[in-house]
C-alpha cells in the first residue's frame, strides 16, 4: 500500500529561505516574491526536510493548539495553494510509508496557538525593485509599501 | 519583466557626502567594524551605531553594508528584529538584496551554460563571485550587475553566444586599438538585465598582464550545475582592491567589506608573497599597502603584522606614487601629475602590447590608444584635455605659491594635503 505523496520546493527556479519566523520564496522564472507566515513556515520547514503532508499535519497537531481536522484542512489547502503557484511540485517516486505515530517528536510544555498559514504574493518586479526598504514601507517592512496619505 | 534595479531616491549621489573621498569616513568605519570586526569591538561599534545611525541620511556605500549588519546581529547573534523599526528596515534591505540577487543569478545561468557548451571557459568576478563563495549567502552582497570574464581570444565567440540567446551585445567600441585600453562590454537581455562581459580584469595600464596571469590560478566553481570559475583568493583580493579603491563623490568603500569578508573566508589560501609580486609588478605597492593598513585597523586579525611590515619595506617608484595619487584624489586633481600625465608609461605599455602588429598600423594607432586612455570621445578632444591639465597645473602652482607670499595657510590647502595621505595619515609616497 502506498502512503501520501511527497512535495518538494520547485527548484532550481524556486528558492526558499526561513528567516526570523518568516519563510520567503522567490520564483526566479517570473520574479514573483512570496512571504509565508503562521503555520505556513512550519509546513515549508517540514517539506524542506523531506516530510509528507501526513507527517507535517501530525507534527503540527502535536505542537499547536487546534482541532486535528482544522490543522489537516489548513495543511491541505496551503499545499494546494503552493502547488498552484508552482512553488512546490510533487517529488518523483514520492510516496512515503504510512506514518508510525511513534516517530512523532515528543513535545514538552504546552502547545502554542495555531495560526493558519498565510501566503502573501508580490508579482510586480518593477515595484519590488523600486520600493525603498528604508523609507517607503509599512511597519511590516519590505516588500509591503506604506499606504499613501489620505487625499484632501 | 523589467529587470533594472532602481536606487531609492535617498541613495542617489546627491544624498552622499558632499566632498567625496577615497577612504571610508569615520561613520562608515564604525559600520564596517560593527559588521566585520572581532566580537568585542564589533559589539561596541554596533551599540554605538544603533544609537547614532540616521538611516534617512545614509550614503550609498553604507546602505550596501546593511544586509551584512542585519545578518551578523539578527540572524547570527539572535537579536530579534521584532518591532524595532531600525532592525525591521535592515531586514528589508536584506530581503530585497536576497530577492534581487537570486533573480539575477538565475538570469545569468543560461548564458553561462551556453558559454560552457560552446567550450568557452568563464570566470565569475566581483559581486557574484564573492556572494557565492566568500559571503554567507546571496542576500548579503548588493550589486548592480554581474561580471563574467572570458579569454580575450574567446571574446568574439562569447558575444556570438549572447546574440544567439537574444541578448544585445554591441561589439567593443572603436577598433582593436581601443581593446587595448578597454576591458568589458555591457550585454543585455530583452528586459534590460545586464552582464558586464570582461576580456580583462581591469581597464588601463596593467590590464593585459594581470588578466593573462590569473587564468593559471583559477578556482573551479559549479554554479547551479554549470562549470565555471572564480579568481584565486589572492587574485580576487588584488582585483577587489585595485578596482574598488578609488576616489568617488560617494566613497566606494565596498572594497573594504569585500576584502575583509574574503580574508575571513579565504585568509588561509592567501598567498601574500604573490600579492607582493603583483603589487610590485603592476605598480600598486602604495595602493595595496594603504589598503592593508586600513583593513588591519578595522580587523586586526585580517592582515598579519609581518605582511604589513613587508609591504612597508617594499620600494615604491614614481608610477606607484602616481597610481596612488590618481586614486585618492578627485579626477581634476590629475593636475598633480605632470601635464603629460602617464604618457611615458602609456607609450611603454602600447609598445609592449602591439609588438607583433605591422609597423604602419602600430605607428598610426597610437593617437587612438592615447585618446581611449585619457577617456576622450574623439581625437580632437586631446588638445583640450592637455589645455585643461595645463590650467589645473598652473592653478595648483599658484595656490601653493600664494600663501607663501601672503604668509597664510588656508583650510582648503590642509584638506588638499590630507587627501593625498593614506588612512594612516602617512604620505602615500614610497
Structural write-up:
The complex is a heterodimer of chains A (152) and B (430). Chain A is of the alpha+beta class. The mean pLDDT of chain A is 87. In chain A, a hairpin with a 4-residue loop joins strand 3 (22-27) and strand 4 (32-37). In chain A, helix 1 packs across helix 2 (53-63) and helix 2 crosses helix 3. Chain A has one domain (5-125): Outer Surface Protein A, domain 3, CATH 3.90.930.60. The termini of chain A are far apart. A 4-stranded antiparallel beta sheet of chain A has the order 2-3-4-8, with helices on one face. Chain A has helices at residues 39-48, 53-63, 68-84, 125-130, and strands at 5-9, 14-19, 22-27, 32-37, 64-65, 88-95, 112-113, 118-122. Helix content of chain B is 55%, strand content 6%. Chain B starts with 25 loop residues before the first helix and ends in an 11-residue tail after the last helix. Chains A and B meet through strand 2 and helix 4 of A and helix 5 of B.
SSE blueprint:
The complex is a heterodimer of chains A (152) and B (430).
Chain A: E1 5-9, E2 14-19, E3 22-27, E4 32-37, H1 39-48, H2 53-63, E5 64-65, H3 68-84, E6 88-95, E7 112-113, E8 118-122, H4 125-130
Parallel strand pairs in A: 5-7
Antiparallel strand pairs in A: 1-6, 2-3, 3-4, 4-8
Chain B: H1 26-36, H2 39-52, H3 60-63, H4 66-76, H5 85-117, E1 123-125, H6 126-133, E2 146-149, H7 155-164, H8 176-181, E3 184-188, E4 194-198, H9 207-214, E5 219-223, E6 226-230, H10 233-244, H11 254-266, H12 272-281, H13 285-298, H14 305-313, H15 318-328, H16 343-353, H17 359-373, H18 381-406, H19 411-419
Parallel strand pairs in B: 1-6, 2-4
Antiparallel strand pairs in B: 1-2, 3-4, 5-6
Amino acid at each position: 500500500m502506498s502512503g501520501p505523496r511527497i512535495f518538494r520546493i520547485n527548484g532550481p527556479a524556486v528558492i526558499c529561505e526561513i528567516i526570523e519566523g518568516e519563510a520567503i520564496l522567490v520564483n526566479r522564472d517570473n520574479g514573483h516574491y512570496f512571504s509565508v507566515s503562521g503555520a505556513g513556515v512550519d509546513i515549508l520547514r517540514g517539506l524542506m526536510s523531506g516530510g509528507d503532508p501526513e507527517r507535517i499535519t501530525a507534527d503540527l497537531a502535536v505542537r499547536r493548539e487546534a482541532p486535528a481536522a482544522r490543522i489537516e484542512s489548513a495543511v491541505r489547502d496551503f499545499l494546494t495553494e503552493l502547488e498552484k503557484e508552482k512553488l512546490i511540485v510533487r517529488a518523483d517516486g514520492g510516496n512515503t510509508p504510512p506514518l508510525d505515530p511513534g516517530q512523532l517528536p515528543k513535545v514538552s510544555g504546552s502547545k502554542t496557538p495555531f495560526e493558519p498559514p498565510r501566503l502573501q504574493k508580490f508579482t510586480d518586479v518593477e515595484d519590488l525593485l523600486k520600493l525603498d526598504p528604508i523609507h517607503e514601507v509599512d511597519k511590516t517592512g519590505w516588500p509591503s509599501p506604506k499606504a499613501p496619505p489620505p487625499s484632501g | 519583466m523589467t529587470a533594472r534595479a532602481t536606487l531609492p531616491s535617498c541613495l542617489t549621489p546627491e544624498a552622499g557626502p558632499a566632498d567625496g573621498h577615497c577612504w571610508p569616513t569615520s561613520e562608515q568605519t564604525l559600520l564596517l567594524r560593527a559588521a566585520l570586526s572581532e566580537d568585542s569591538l564589533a559589539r561596541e561599534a554596533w551599540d554605538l551605531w544603533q544609537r547614532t545611525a540616521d538611516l534617512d541620511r545614509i550614503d550609498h556605500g553604507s546602505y550596501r553594508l546593511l544586509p551584512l549588519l542585519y545578518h551578523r546581529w539578527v540572524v547570527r547573534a539572535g537579536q530579534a528584529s521584532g518591532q524595532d523599526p531600525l532592525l525591521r528596515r535592515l531586514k528589508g534591505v536584506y530581503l530585497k538584496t536576497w530577492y534581487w540577487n537570486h533573480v539575477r543569478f538565475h538570469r545569468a545561468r543560461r548564458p553561462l551554460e551556453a558559454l560552457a557548451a560552446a567550450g568557452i571557459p568563464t570566470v565569475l568576478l566581483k559581486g557574484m563571485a564573492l556572494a557565492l563563495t566568500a559571503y554567507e549567502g546571496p542576500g548579503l552582497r548588493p550589486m548592480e550587475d554581474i561580471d563574467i570574464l572570458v579569454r580575450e581570444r574567446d571574446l568574439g565567440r562569447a558575444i556570438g553566444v549572447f546574440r544567439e540567446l537574444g541578448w544585445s551585445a554591441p561589439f567593443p567600441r572603436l577598433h582593436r586599438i581601443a581593446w587595448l585600453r578597454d576591458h568589458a562590454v555591457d550585454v543585455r537581455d530583452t528586459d534590460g538585465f545586464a552582464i558586464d562581459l570582461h576580456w580583462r580584469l581591469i581597464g588601463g595600464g596593467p590590464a593585459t598582464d594581470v588578466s593573462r596571469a590569473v587564468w593559471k590560478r583559477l578556482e573551479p566553481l559549479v554554479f547551479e550545475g554549470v562549470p565555471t570559475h572564480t579568481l584565486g583568493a589572492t587574485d580576487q583580493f588584488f582585483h577587489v582592491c585595485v578596482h574598488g579603491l578609488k576616489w568617488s563623490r560617494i566613497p566606494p568603500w565596498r572594497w573594504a567589506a569585500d576584502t575583509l569578508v574574503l580574508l575571513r573566508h579565504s585568509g588561509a589560501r592567501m598567498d601574500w608573497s604573490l600579492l607582493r609580486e603583483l603589487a610590485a609588478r603592476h605598480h600598486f605597492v602604495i595602493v595595496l599597502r594603504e589598503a592593508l593598513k586600513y583593513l588591519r585597523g578595522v580587523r586586526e586579525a585580517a592582515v598579519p603584522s609581518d605582511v604589513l611590515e613587508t609591504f612597508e619595506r617594499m620600494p615604491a617608484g614614481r608610477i606607484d606614487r602616481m597610481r596612488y595619487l590618481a586614486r585618492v584624489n578627485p579626477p581634476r586633481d590629475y593636475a598633480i601629475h605632470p601635464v603629460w600625465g602617464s604618457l611615458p608609461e602609456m607609450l611603454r605599455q602600447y609598445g609592449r602590447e602591439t609588438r607583433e602588429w605591422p609597423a604602419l598600423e602600430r605607428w598610426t594607432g597610437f593617437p587612438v590608444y592615447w585618446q581611449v586612455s585619457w577617456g576622450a570621445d574623439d581625437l580632437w578632444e586631446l588638445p583640450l584635455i592637455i589645455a585643461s591639465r595645463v590650467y589645473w597645473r598652473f592653478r595648483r602652482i599658484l595656490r601653493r605659491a600664494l600663501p607663501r607670499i601672503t604668509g597664510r595657510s588656508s583650510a582648503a590647502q590642509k584638506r588638499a594635503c590630507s587627501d593625498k595621505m593614506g588612512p594612516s595619515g602617512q604620505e602615500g609616497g614610497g
